[in-house]
Amino acid sequence: MNLRNVDLGILIFRIAIATLMLTHGYPKLIDFFGSDELKFADPIGLGEEISYTLVVFAEFVCSVFIVLGFLTRFAAIPLIITMAVAAFIVHVPDGFMKQELPILYMFGFILLAFTGGGKYSLDFYINKNKK
Fold first, then answer.
1. Of 1, 3, 27, 75, which residue has the fewest beta carbons closer than 10 angstroms?
2. Which residues touch 108 (CB under 8 Å, ≥6 apart)?
3. What is the pTM (predicted TM-score) of this model?
4. Considering only CA atoms, which of 127, 118, 110 is closest in space to residue 3?
């Protein structure tokens, strides 16, 4: 197997999944700084504001990090947790049709937690310059 193809595949996957997640995170970020009162679920008992803050951090900040390939493995962890909570706590009453997308995202971010950002990432560049 050609490692260049693997790294190119990781790059394409990393950018695609994180960019798609940004379509969920960016509107939440805008609402977060808006003047309207936040209405958000509190699925694990942290409070609506803290839950919303953590989701914005995961879906926006961590997604940007993953697009850049910066701290990819670490940035994937909050996204894995967020998607697991969405799928297995928030959307349980809604059925599998609402659980399917967060489960798919969750497994994508699990993949990135194992592979890292690949050769075409800031992680690789930073680590290469350290050596």
1. 1
2. 13, 17
3. 0.92
4. 118
